[in-house]
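User: Assemble these into one structure.

Assistant: Restating your components, then the assembled model:
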Amino acid sequence: MTDFGESLLAPAALRPSEYTAALVHALNLEPERVHGVSALEIGSGSGVVLAVLAGLGAAALYGIDVEDDAVLAGSLLLRELGHEARCQIHKGDMWQPVEGRRFDLIAANLPHFPMQDHEVPGRHPTWSAGGPDGRRWLDPFLRGLPGHLEDGGRAVLTHNGFVGLDASREILAGSGLTLRVIESVFVPIGPEKLELMSPAVLEIEEGKSIHRYGPYAFADMHVVEVTADKRAANAR
Ligand SMILES: C[S@@+](CC[C@H](N)C(=O)[O-])C[C@H]1O[C@@H](n2cnc3c(N)ncnc32)[C@H](O)[C@@H]1O
């Protein structure tokens, strides 16, 4: 029995999504690359990704989220699973709580749906909205990687097809980091969310990365890995 309330441990607003599931699946593909590493997750939400990393044997874990209930729920989850000695979750904005620190593995499932700050029913306004082009958090995340990855480290993140893999590759170009797709899945996009999508993105992406079947829509979603470009590293 636990001595804390179930609703604090697992608030409905932080329930893992199909994006979380895909990220967790990709991390599970190579458990040997998680064992013994120092890991950071930006936007830790429920804390379940940190719990998965702890279960795969990460040596030290650090989570960051802007929402108070995410910090609490994540901390309770890691305590419930017996991982609290290896894990800290802090309230903060993106890289700010870990300035000057480096990690072997950085995971993220950032808000990067192209829309203004609308609330998706049942979620916090900070859950999905990535601004008109979806890149409000994705771009600073990618720009921060060179300063926060250990030598030989990697980042693993979810990446909507409709925000553009090439735009992300462009940001990384010149920093010695390269992006590769680990796996791709379809994610359903409900009508209420599609309504909120920036019209400019919808117009370009419909039929490309957004697939409609009558009232139902799916979108391409990738789990990607960012690592040091071996050629650049060898040339140094
Ligand atoms: C799509 S959810 C992912 C949650 C969790 N990682 C998962 O996969 O279930 C995005 C998370 O990022 C958090 N977030 C939003 N803006 C943030 C920011 N500027 N800095 C840190 N976390 C942020 C949200 O509170 C939310 O928990």
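Residues 1-5 have pLDDT under 50 and may be disordered.
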